[in-house]
Task: structure prediction
Amino acid sequence: MLGYIAQRLLIMIPTLLAISIIVFVIIQAPPGDYLSSYVAELQSQGESVDPQKIAFLRAQYGLDRPLFEQYFVWLTGMLQGDFGYSFEYNLPVTKVVGDRLWLTFIVSFTTILFVWVVSFPIGVYSATHQYSIGDYGLTFLGFIGLATPNFLLALVLLYVANSWFGVSVGGLMAEEYLDQPWSLAKVLSVFAHLWIPVIVIGAAGTAGMIRRLRANLLDELQKQYVVTGRAKGLPAGRLLIKYPLRMALNPFVSDIGNLLPHVVSGATITSIVLSLPTTGPMLLQALRSQDMYLAGSFLMFLATLTVFGVLLSDLLLALLDPRIRLHGGTTR
Amino acid sequence: MRRAIISSLALASLLLIGAAAAHAFDMQETPSLRARVAQGKLPRVAERAPEHPLIVDLAADGKRIGRPGGTLRILMAADKDTRLMVAYGYARLVVFNEKLQLVPDILESFDVEGDRVFTFHLREGMRWSDGEPLTSEDFRYYWEDVANNKQLSPYGLTRALLVEGEPPRVEYPDLYTVRYSWTKPNPHFLPLLAGATPLEIFMPGHYLKQFHAQYADADKLQKLAKAAKQRNWAALHAFKGHSYRNSNPELPSLEPWVLTTPPPAERLVFVRNPFYYRFDAQGHQLPYIDTVTMDIVDSKLIPLKTETGEADLQARYLRFDDYTFLRRGEKQHDYAVRLWRSGTGSQVALYPNLNVKDPVWRKLVRDVRFRRALSLAVNRHEINKVVYFGLGLEGNDTVLPESPLFKEEYKKRWATFDLKAANALLDEMGLTKRDDRNTRLLPDGRAMEIVVETSGSSTEQTDVLQLIRDTWAELGVRLFIKPSQLEIFRMRIFAGETVMAISSGLDDGIPVAEISPAELAPTEEDQLQWPKWGDYYETHGKTGEAVDLPEASELLALNKEWETAASHEERTRIWQRMLEINADQQFTIGIVAAVPQPVVVSNHLENVAEKGIYCWDPGAHFGIYKPDTFWFDNAPAETAAVKAAAP
Result:
């Protein structure tokens, strides 16, 4: 087991290195750099830009150096915990990301909780009552959630929340709390705003999760051990929870690998529509303005989380299901 | 003539100050500051103000004396939009007033000799927002320790301070006098100082010296730079002292409201500058409004949030197509949508690229008959009706009627819809061959298909282009629309790959003769109709291409002539000749101008102009309308003061 973990950890090094090169090259691929897009933006609004100042900034930011040199400065910085400097915000990357990360955590965890709480019972119900009216009805609802584009749902809920409940548009709290310290009223305000992004982001995930659980459970329910259990007179509920449901849990666990980066990045499009102060909109803006260290470091962070998440879910799966072996079948 | 205006104005303001003093001008303490004054944390208002404060003549602008207090809420899309508070605050050495005359502002007065020698007189006792005095030392600091410092300005002086390569001589005869002199005239100097993005010629030296290698301990500086993740002290100094970017809450300022929240933040708060230099006639220190809060939300949500009453004053990120939507929320959320006029020469204009690479197209585009024909074949009236509800002003990309330089013919020449004349022009050029779809053929046999590139994030430009496409089809010219991202859009034009682009027209649609006409001549790479010529001019011939079209050369010569022109009459003559050439040559094809800009104003906000011009330079958007004189009629001024004074 330990040897396996060590091996996986070692493989991560070249993987992450390759990702870092791809990330850097792709961010730098469009013509120009941060300053040229900055100048383009200002001039398109009629503002004048002093070329001397831009030249000074370009030298200060190191944007006049060759690409590979910029890459190595970034890479060695990251290894020492220095994620570089955001040109857009004029701040070190860690400071820019810091506050947003917490709110992203809150939104994402609530969403995951929502997805699990809703999809788990529905999935079980649909599987055990296959082709019943309840199954069809809930499946229909789930597919609507899956099929509606998130941004559309976000806009509709935004309108409903504002015109029916008087909740301010967008953001995660009422505007009067923005610069206030945390208080009970502020927390309540956050909850009043939180349900919209949670439903919007969760809607699609819920449908997927219901279907997966239902399919897995249906597979298990047909198996002989279930029939045996039933024949031996086990109560229906106990039988279900003790045996087939445990088997059907695998998709939940293997999903953890994907959850980790998702928790940190948030749902970008929904966050933009809802103007959430999360990391998604920040990443998009950074990519658009070629704020390369902010975008690059953040993408690397996500990549690292994905790689670790996959490892974590693999280990958990092995724990949960003894049929899964860590080493391939070649040794036998 | 101009000097006469200025000196008479200076005299008038002196008289005003005299009159105020004679009437025992009583300064009143601002209610929200009384508590701090009582605790001794802040000097009394009379000690904070300069000896001769600027007394704003509200009645002259049709405004009323207000009540201090309240919070103004505005919405912006990015942290870097804090710079717009520098435009809205519009505290400058000299400013444009609403009639676009240059008047002293931070300066008590100034003298100009032949546009060569500028002597500035500072207000005695004027202070920065941290209470330190503003003196000629701050000008010296910028000039000697920043502008002429090899590390801080490795690329030399900013071009705006050079006249044909010659730097000014800067002198500081006493604490309150500064003099800039050149051997040749520099007519750009004062308008640049009054710009929305002002030319910087002074800095708070007392604060910035701690980041300057000449004054601070090298080790300590090294540590400071490292802590702020800056490469060296020069980068640290630039970061801390960037007054236009306005992102350092510690940086002393002269603006009416100063930043207190360090970005990034969702809400940036600006509070009143207790050492501000403008007063109303009753002795209230301006600004009336105590606090400005700037909420950062996505730009696409700004119209939506404005409609739900979350802004008290909003124009940025609102477009004309939001107008009907915004009107809907007026009653429920207690605001009014006013329509100001946009100050650009044309809301949308076509830019035939005279530097296009393709030799066949280049020859065509450079033929004035071709450009005239395209312009004649645009049905501006229809576009105005369909896209702008008929509220715009149809015609060329030229100055607006508000400008004293305006003439009807600049707007109308070659700009009336006349397909017959347009077709005749193209026939005359010998472009008579057509293909089976009735599209004319280029001399080399290709179909005459123009790809117009747009970077517009809204559908406005494509809507306009679709209407143009229909009428151009009758001319035998096919139009295709290609949207692209702003930066790529510009690069393709600069490289000569684009035949034609659509963008907004002249930045300054309401110039006076004293403003530089450079925008009308090939002087910048940024000009989409002749980027390579502009580049050539900007880099003194290092890159780009030399102008090889007589009319464009004449524009360049006229622009040069303007710089040395001695009189107002001569400048007017040069301006008018340049406008005439531009209208006649159709270097840009203007469509519709003066499209209304919706300005959402809370019903409780007073002194905001009913009709205004929304222009960046000159104008600084709200800047010339003096937002420091805006006030809330529901400001809880007196009660708040009593409460604050009670403990």
